[in-house]
Design goal:
single chain; 95% helix; coiled coil
Length: 153
Amino acid sequence: MSETSEQTMAEICLELLLRGSTTAYNMVYASNRGQLRTEVDRLKKELEEVMASHSQCAQMMADNHVLMENLKKAGLDLRNSRDSLAVDLKIAKETIVNLTTNRDDLRQTVVNLKKAADEEAETRAEMLKAIVAEHTGFSEGIAPNVFSCKGVP
């Protein structure tokens, strides 16, 4: 055996130590690399799920936008319909007021006509009585003259 110096032994020990630490590092790195690959695969799957969810959300947003536009149109139509109905209601109220006024006027006219008819009926009754009285008086006045006319040949 040859003599080795302390310096050489220290260098050999240092080299073995470096080789061992490099081997340990490579083993840890390889182990970590497997874990990293597993983590990367898990994150890729999660990314795919998030992307699918995002596309579903984007589709839902587009659908909701269409629905919102339809709701706006329906709201505008309802507002226009409400305004039209309000105008129709105002016209109907004015018509009701006019018809009520006309009805009241017609009722008053009917009352006045009934009064006039009653007064006319009273006047007719009085005239009939007067005519009957006059006719009776005339007949009574003529009756003696009829006998006197018959007596003269």
